[in-house]
Each structure stands twice: as C-alpha cells, then as structure tokens.
Amino acid sequence: MLTSRRGAGAPGVDALVAELGELGAEVVVVACDVADRVQVEALLAEFEPTSVFHAAGRDHFDPVSSLSLEDLHAVLSAKVDGARHLDELLGDRELDAFVLFSSIAGVWGSGHQAAYAAANAYLDALAHQRRSRGLAATAVAWGPWADGGMAAETGAEESLRRRGLRTMPAAQAVLALHRALADDRTTSTVADVDWSTFAPTFTVGRPSPLLSALPEVRDALDGGAAPTSTASAELVARLTGLPEPEQDRLLVDLVRTRAAAVLGHGSTGSVSADRAFRDLGFDSLTAVELRNTLGAETGLSLPTTLVFDHPNATELARLLKTELLGTEEGADTVLPVAVGSSEDPIVIVGMSCRYPGGVRSPEDLWRLVADGVDAVDEFPTDRDWDVEKLYDPTGKAGSSYVRRGGFLYDAAEFDADFFGISPREAVAMDP
Ligand SMILES: NC(=O)c1ccc[n+]([C@@H]2O[C@H](COP(=O)([O-])OP(=O)(O)OC[C@H]3O[C@@H](n4cnc5c(N)ncnc54)[C@H](OP(=O)(O)O)[C@@H]3O)[C@@H](O)[C@H]2O)c1
Asked: Are 88 and 131 in contact (CB under 8 A)?
C-alpha cells in the first residue's frame, strides 16, 4: 500500500503501479495525510501493515533567523507528526520493519535547514526510543539521492557536489537500506561524501568533534591543500624581478581574479581590492575554494580560515607576499607555512565555574580535588521538589534511589531573565 497526500493523483503513479505489478506485487494507492492523525487511524483500520516505510517529508531552505512558526510547522508535520502518528497508532504491533527516512541534516547539520534537521533528528531519536520498547525500528539518515527526489528536484546537485556531497544512485541507496535492515541497525548514515572537500568546508567556522572521529576527515584536515613547490618557485621568480609596487599589484590582482572566479563573476572588476570578502558573498564553501585555488597557485599551504583572517584582497595579498618573499628585510628562503589544526592559538581570557561543594572558581575546584572534599550532601529544599516522593529505592523512572547528591545550593537564585532565558527553559536547565 503506497500513500501520500495526492495518492493516485500524484504524477507517475500509474507507471509505478504497473512496474511493481510486473515484479509481482499487488499495489494499492491511497491518499492520506500522515500529519493528520484521524486519516492515519482510518488507513491503519483498513490495512494491517507488516512493515512500514515512513518516507513522507518536506524540505525547506531558510536561515533560522527568518524561519517562521508556519515554516517550522510545515516541515515538521509530515516527518515528525507522521512518524509519531504511525508509532502511536501501531502501538506494540509486531512489525517486520519500521523504517524512517531521515537525513544527514539531522546527524551533522546543514546550512539553512534548521527545521528539516530538527525533523530528521526526531526520526533518529524515535528509532532509538522504539528499540528501547522492544519494537522494530530502522532510521537511515540519507545523503543526497540521484535519480529524482528532493535533492535532484531542487537542482541542488551541483552545489552539493561542490561541497563534497555526491548524489547516490537510487539502486545503491536501496542496497544500503537492505544492509541496514539485514544488520538490524537502529540508525545508520548513508552518504557518498568526498571528505577532502566536505571536511575543510564544514569545519571552516568551528571544528566538528563528531566528524573528526573519522580517519578520512582527520586526513583531510591534517593534509590541507598540498603545497606544490614548483608553482611557488615560478611565482617567486616572477615577483623577485619586479619593483615592490608591481609585486603588490600582481598579488592583489591574483587574489581578485581568483576570488571573482570562485564567486562566479565574469570579471575581476566585481572584486575591489579593499572590499571585505564577507560583503562580496564569501561563505564557508567559497572560502575553502579560494584557499584551495590560491594554495595551488602559490604553492603555499594556507589555512581554511584564510578569507576570514585576511578579510580583503589587499590584506590577503600582503600575507601571500610575506609568505612567498619573506619579511621586508628580505629572507632568501621561501618556506610554505603549514597551519595545522593543532596549532590554533588559544587564549584563555577568563575562567569561571560553579560546582557542588561550594566551588565558585577554578581555584576552589582545585582545592576540592586536592583536599579530597566530599561534595555530596542533602537535596536542596528551594527547588519545589517533593524530596520524600522523589525517593524510591527501586530506582523506577522519574525517581531518585539516593537521598543525597552533589548540588549547587544557590542555583535557584539564577536570574534567568537577565540571560534572556524563559522560566520554563531555566527549570529544564536546572542542574
Ligand atoms: N532525496 C534525497 O536526496 C533525500 C536525502 C535525504 C533524506 N531524504 C528523505 O527521504 C524521504 C523521501 O524523499 P524524496 O526525495 O523522495 O522526497 P519527495 O520527492 O519530495 O517526496 C516526498 C513525498 O512525501 C509525500 N508527503 C509529503 N507530505 C506528506 C504528508 N503530510 N502525508 C503524506 N505524504 C506526504 C509527498 O507526496 P504528497 O505531496 O502527495 O503528499 C511525496 O510523495 C524524505 O523524508 C526525505 O527527507 C531524501
């Protein structure tokens, strides 16, 4: 039984039904909005499924700052409400499979897809929750598919490829689904990623502890853009034969030309020497592309944060000049500069902490550890907790099987309003 809101009215349904029929399947197509509980209930009353594949979903691209509640609702309803309705209405019914079509957006995030990412993260969590209830559940977080569907239809394939995400042929993705089911996995991520492109772009703003666990990502980030000493020598030879103002002009023009090309401008004129790269429209993807192209051209190993650290063509050209020709005094050896991720300068401007045991500073914490202080004490009485009811020696969910713990006794004095945190959120954050 195939279902969607348009049901038999969806384009291509007849051909699909015919194809499935030739393969020996008896197919029924029914219109049903899975976001509507009543419709799902009626559907399940009519058909008793042995397996469920929840692939209904909707994409949405918008920065989170301009995401409206309506947008959020539209994106969440098919995926989240649909999954919840199926899960709740099927109850404990034994199924061969309960498959949730999720996305890499929910696993590691995706620019301008906050609502979509949240919806998919819900599906992954639901899979775990069903498993913990002893029920079938398999969530697969897909990378982009080829051969039709969201990624192909939004025309995003080319921009995804530039970011290192290649589309997967549908047959290959289906094989991966078979494997996830055969291996009885709760959640899997299936994507065709070119890590050498994806990793530097994805981590340009901040590191990703999740992805850095992958050896391919570590290699991609440690390697950076490989310096090609020939290109460097040629450029240095050209530069050394020129008077200084000409050297500056050559390097600024080099940066402007490459920046214009990366941004897709037809002429260098669109990139003026002193205009900030950010204002010209550079983002993490184009920043890394410019780093790569300048790295290849100069033979220098340049950091991915290049355009953020040197914010316009003049500044960036100045850096290239120093790296290629040495300081103004004239160093005669050209040394490509490798900036490894481990060499980021870290400056500690202040430290603060609050811990059980009356710790209010790093020094207090050190004393607590050095003196072996026991910071465990009675439950606080100013949190609206019913301490007597909370205690249950059997350790049932929602209770505490101990009567003492490590607490911040003045946490109730936290001024949530001052930090712009709602009272409900403050209660949820209460350590
Ligand atoms: N294609 C990809 O590259 C990709 C990558 C990662 C994850 N995914 C996930 O895989 C799933 C399928 O993607 P796709 O590319 O096939 O998407 P698609 O071509 O846009 O198809 C989505 C389907 O969901 C149905 N639908 C939407 N809202 C519904 C609702 N409220 N009730 C019932 N059906 C509803 C749509 O039909 P109606 O409009 O007729 O309801 C449509 O048939 C989605 O969940 C998507 O997030 C896809």
From this structure: no
Atom in ligand 1 nearest the alpha carbon of residue 36? 31
Query: 273 and 155 in one domain?
Result: no
Q: What is the mean pLDDT of the chain?
A: 90
Q: Are residues 330 and 376 in the same domain?
A: no
Question: Does ligand 1 come within 6 angstroms of the Cβ of 56?
Answer: yes
pLDDT tens, residue by residue, 121-136 = 999 999 999 999 999 9
Same domain, residue pair 243 and 314: yes
Does a structural domain hold residue 213? no
Residue 39: closest CA among 47, 50, 31:
31
395 shares a domain with 282: no
The answer as to whether 276 is a domain residue is: yes
Closest CA to 17 of 30, 5, 26, 4: 26
Q: Whose CA is nearest to atom 7 of ligand 1?
A: 103
- Between 81 and 343, the higher pLDDT residue: 81
pLDDT band at 240 (very low <50, low <70, confident <90, very high): very high
Tell whether pTM > 0.85: no
